Amino acid sequence: MTETVAPALTVMTVNIHKGFTTFNRKFILPELRDAVRKVGADIVFLQEVLGEHEDDGRTVNGAPHYEFLAEEIWPQFAYGRNAVSPRSHHGNAVMSKFPIVRYQNHDVSIAGPEKRGLLHCVLNVPTHQLEVHAICVHLGLAESHRQQQLDLLCEIVRCEVPEGAPLIVAGDFNDWRRRAHDMLWREVGLREVFVTAYGEAAKTFPARFPLLSLDRIYVRNASVHLPVVLPRRPWSHLSDHAPLVAEIHL
Asked: Domain named Endonuclease/exonuclease/phosphatase: which ranges (predicted)?
């Protein structure tokens, strides 16, 4: 009897910078949507996603960015509002080709003006018996804040993710000193996919000439095949962070 092998999932993470090029020079969300669609990922982790804005110059037909990006390709999406201003709000989002059965946005903001969140989604992947957990991450700029936020991430994993369930954690960690790897492995068994595959995290920022390893994909109870950093063309024009893509085997 031949054992059925579940197909791999393609995941992508990218900080979309609220739909603007570097330094907010030009609104390029339609171009960015075309580029994201060409990747064909099953699950997309997005950071700095505009939810609502009164100025149509920052949206397309007034739609939240995640709805515009997901339209016709990703039937399921979840949004976690983090930063709120009088005229708009933004946060993290997950777009999925599989049902999102539930989700929760965790506020991990530390004292001060910088607002951050961890968006935890639970997916029903038809080819897999167990629910798949996906956490979209955007951590703070200050190292002391990041350490506290990593502690909170570990606590969420311990409390909300069953030990045997597949888990994907992806996003913008702002961890330029690479402190997260050892901690996440030691505390909750998460492995970073580029470190596992190539021995070091991918350099993603700034996208035009990447020097810092800010963006990550971590997994538990899953394996990864040949993770890649997407090429500078067209991505260095579309975001200040280079996107990451990986094939996840559950």
From this structure: 12-241
